[in-house]
Amino acid sequence: MAEKKNIRFILAYDGSRYHGWQRQKNGLSIQEVIEDHLYLMTRERISLVASGRTDAGVHALNQVCHFITTTTLDPLTIKKGLNSLLPNDILIKQSDYMPLEFHARYSARSKTYEYRLINRPEPDIFLRAYSWQIQKRLNLEEMKRCLAALTGRHDFSAFKSTGSKNKNPVREMLRAELERPEPGRINLIFEANGFLRHMVRNIVGTVLDVGLEKLSHSDFLDILTSKDRERAGIKAPPRGLYLSYVAY
Prior knowledge:
Blueprint: E1 5-13, H1 30-42, E2 49-50, E3 59-69, H2 75-85, E4 90-98, E5 110-119, E6 132-134, H3 140-149, E7 152-155, E8 170-182, E9 185-192, H4 199-211, H5 217-226, E10 241-247
Parallel strand pairs: 3-10, 5-6
Antiparallel strand pairs: 1-3, 1-4, 2-3, 5-9, 5-10, 7-8, 8-9
C-alpha cells in the first residue's frame, strides 16, 4: 500500500471572481480550481482542507491548507506544476510535507484578517476593486478606541450574520488595531482565535459609523454588549477583506 503523506500549501489569491473558498454547486470556488488542477497532476481525487472558508470576493495573502495524498510527486514539484497551470489570480507560495496529524483548521492557534480602506476626497481608480473607499473625513482616534475595546474574550453576537453555524459566539480577540501605511490609506487589523460568519466585515461597518460620527464610542460599546446584530452597522463589502496570516 502506498504511503500516505500530508502536504501543506500556503497560498495567495484574488477572490474577486470567485464564490469564496469552498467548493459549491452554483459558482466557481478557489477550492474547486486547485483540486481540479491537482487531479491533473496526481490523478487522485484530493480534498483540500483550509484554515478557514473565505467568502465570495474576499482575498487571501497567506491562506493555509493541507491534503492527504499518496502521490510520489514531491512538494516542490507540485508547487511548480500547479503554478504553471493555475489562473494568475491564485498562487501557491509554499508547499511542504507536514506530520499526518497536522490539520490546517484545527491546528491553527489564531487567524489575522486585514481590512483595507481608502480615505481621501478623491477615489483611487486603481485600488477601488481591492478596498472600501470612504471619501468623508474619518475620526481615527474614536475608531481606535472602539477597536481597543474589542480585545479580550467577548460574545460577538452583535457582529454575527444570520446563517452562522457557530453555536458558541464567544471569541478571544488578540489584536484589533488601526494602521496607516501611507496618507489616505487605512488598514484595520484583527487577530483572534476564531471568527464568526461575517464578523470582521460587520465590525468594520460599525467602526466606520463611529469614524463618520454617526455613532459614538459609547454607542459602539452598547452594541457590543447588546448581542443584537440589528443595532450594529452595515456589513462592509468583501473587496477590502484579506486573510493575512494563520498562526500555528
